[in-house]
Amino acid sequence: MPKLTYLGHSAFLIEGSKARLIIDPFLSGNPKAPKKPEDIKVDYVLLSHAHGDHLGDAIAIAKANKATVVAPFELAGYCESKGTLIHPLHIGGGFNFPFGRIKLTIAHHGSVTPDGVYGGSPCGFLVTMDGKTLYHSGDTALFYDMKLIGEMNAIDVALLPIGDNFTMGIPDAAKAAELLSARVAVPMHYDTFDLIKADPNEFVKQAAAKGRKAQVVPVGGTLEY
Ligand code: NI
Ligand code: MN
User: What is the pTM of this model?
Assistant: First the structure.
């Protein structure tokens, strides 16, 4: 059974039987992050897009661990130019890694690095390992194709932004939980900054009103799925 640990903002550590992954490791820039980049031991670093609150400490973590960065082609190329191992993918494409499968989904957002390099299309991730499927939507608006993603994948856990302003807010995230039909939805991308303050329990309530289970995983908390 894979285990996720919430590291604040959109950062999650995912530990399966064959690999450890980190998604969007924004740690040293986030005063609420429960771990330092040097504490992270992983095999893969997944990046949904190039914004600083997602790229975060990815390059340092990937180099220190000799981990492979999995990201959209343009962003992967940027990481390679900074000295990391990479596996580029692009929207709609997946790859069977030794530990399981990663597929990129669409996300409606932007993607440019803090130093101004175009990051290609932002993405979400479907990560399947140990027979379980996790969906991390990345930063995105609500989109109706989430229904298609839910029809074609039995999603065990969906990680969804609720902070509004830059991404979905709570009503849209609750609708996303409904469209995806995930076994459980977990809120992310809230409370890190004043602009994205949100009440995660309100998300749980609104998802429940649509017949979907949502669960708040506190920063530093874990969930086996
Ligand atoms: Ni962003
Ligand atoms: Mn963001």
Answer: 0.98
- The Cα-based distances of 126 to 23, 193, 201 in angstroms read 12, 27, 25
CA–centroid distance, 54 to ligand 1, in Å, is 7
CA of 30 to the centre of ligand 1 (A): 14
- Rounded CA-CA distance 187/160 in Å is 5
d(CA 103, CA 95): 7
Q: How far is the CA of 17 from the centre of ligand 1 (A)?
A: 30
* Distance (Å) from CA 83 to ligand 1 centroid: 23
Residue 46 has a pLDDT of: 99
Q: Which domains does the chain have, with CATH numbers?
A: 1-109 (3.60.15.10), 141-214 (3.60.15.10)
pLDDT per residue as tens digits for the range 198-213: 999 999 999 999 999 9
pLDDT digits (tens, 9 = 90+) for 170-223: 999 999 999 999 999 999 999 999 999 999 999 999 999 999 999 999 999 999
In a 3-state reduction of DSSP, which class is residue 222? strand
Give the ligand with the smallest distance to the CA of 192.
Answer: 2
Q: Which residues lie near ion ligand 2 (Cβ < 5 Å)?
A: 53, 139
Indicate which ligand has the atom closest to the C-alpha of 24: 2
